[in-house]
Design goal:
Layout (H helix, E strand, L loop, with lengths): L2 H15 L9 E5 L3 E7 L15 H10 E5 L15 E2 L3 H17 L4 E11 L3 E12 L2 E11 L28 E5 L22 E5 H9 L8
Antiparallel strand pairs: 1-2, 2-5, 3-4, 3-8, 5-6, 6-7, 7-9
Length: about 230
C-alpha cells in the first residue's frame, strides 16, 4: 500500500474509533486563536446523555483541578508510596479559563451531543503542544475524555504515522496512544468500571468517570488532620 494511502487509512480508522463519527457539523461555544470549545453530535450516546446539564463553572474548575495524568512510558513508582507520580492535567489558569465555557456548553448540549475542548499551548521549552478531549453528563456521572495532554503533534510519528497530527477538527483523536493515562483525585469520586455505563473509546485509560454527587460529598469533607 502506498505511504499516503496507508496514512489516510490509519487516520480514518483512528478517527472512527475515537468517537469522531460523521453527523451534523459541530457548533462553537467559544473560539480564539488558542482555544476552541464545541458541541458535537455523539453517535454513541445510546438512549441519550443527561443534557442540557447544569454543572456550575466552579464545579467544572474543581473537576479540572482534580484531573491527573500518569506517564505510561516512564512509570517510576515513588519510593515512599509505591505508586507512580501524577501530574496535573490543567494549570490554574486553564481551570479558571475553561470552567465557564465548558459549563455553558454542557447547558446548551442536547441528549445526543457531547462537548469537546481543544487548546494549543506554545512554550519556549516544549514548543507547540495540544490538550484536547471532551466531556458529557450521563445520569449523575460526568465523563471526561482526555485525548491529549500537552502532546506534541509529532508524537504520533513513532507509531507508523508519517506526518504530524493537529486534532483541531477531531479533538477526541489521540495523537499518541502510549504517552499517558488519565485519572482523578480524590479517587473516591471515580466511578468503578463495573458500575459505569460504557462509552466506547479507543483508549479507556483516558476516560475518567466522576460521580458528581460523591464529588460534592468529598469537597465538603474536612481534610484529615496530620498526626503530630
Amino acid at each position: 500500500m502506498p505511504t499516503g494511502m496507508k496514512f489516510a487509512v490509519i487516520l480514518l480508522l483512528v478517527s472512527l474509533m475515537s468517537g469522531c463519527a460523521t453527523g451534523p457539523p459541530p457548533r462553537a461555544v467559544y473560539q480564539d486563536s488558542a482555544t476552541i470549545i464545541r458541541i458535537q453530535s455523539d453517535s454513541k450516546a445510546g438512549q441519550g446523555h443527561g443534557h442540557p446539564a447544569t454543572v456550575s463553572p466552579d464545579a467544572i474548575r474543581l473537576i479540572l483541578q482534580g484531573m491527573r495524568v500518569q506517564s505510561r512510558s516512564s512509570f517510576v513508582p515513588s519510593i515512599l508510596t509505591g505508586e507512580a507520580s501524577l501530574g496535573a492535567a490543567f494549570s490554574k489558569d486553564e481551570q479558571d479559563f475553561l470552567g465557564p465555557h465548558l459549563s455553558q456548553a454542557l447547558a446548551e448540549a442536547k441528549p445526543d451531543e457531547l462537548v469537546t475542548f481543544y487548546r494549543r499551548i506554545s512554550t519556549s521549552a516544549v514548543g507547540l503542544a495540544i490538550t484536547s478531549g471532551g466531556l458529557f453528563v450521563h445520569g449523575r456521572h460526568l465523563y471526561v475524555i482526555l485525548a491529549n495532554n500537552r502532546t506534541k503533534p509529532s508524537e504520533g510519528m513513532s507509531q507508523s504515522i508519517v506526518s504530524e497530527i493537529d486534532p483541531v477538527d477531531s479533538p477526541l483523536l489521540p495523537i499518541s496512544r502510549t504517552a499517558f493515562r488519565a485519572t482523578f483525585v480524590p479517587a473516591t469520586s471515580i466511578v468503578p468500571e463495573d458500575e459505569r455505563w460504557v462509552w466506547p473509546y479507543i483508549d479507556q485509560g483516558r476516560v475518567v468517570v466522576i460521580d458528581l454527587v460523591q464529588l460534592g460529598r468529598d469537597m465538603r469533607s474536612p481534610a484529615p488532620r496530620a498526626v503530630p
